[in-house]
Amino acid sequence: MSKWLSLLPALGVGVIVGLFSGLFGIGGGILMVPALVYIWRDAIRDMQMAVATSLAVMIPSTIAGTIRNHFTYGKVEWHLAVLLAVGAVAGTYFLGVPLAQIIPSETLKKIFGVVLVVFGLQMAGVGGFLGRLLIK
Question: In this predicted structure, what is the pLDDT of residue 1?
């Protein structure tokens, strides 16, 4: 029975990430990477492993969300999605993954944190205000 109980944290985090992914189109990096780094410290050796594991989790989650949004609600803008996907695949394969292997894990954590804060403030409507303060 304890083996089944040990699965609950991963399933719970997966459900929470899936909820936010479906609500906001986020989840892989924003939620999964911090969860992997801090909850599964023993299994996840470094930031690079957290990112790679998160990317693997995104595949079925993204497919499920796309299918549900397209077939149930007709909400996918396919022309734009294809163009963005081509750029995202190229950026991931040729730039992101190779750079992540060069940049030290602790530096990646710091960059990731700053990116989350900047985009979070922007989404909350505070980013423009902060930008105006910095420009003055």
Answer: 55
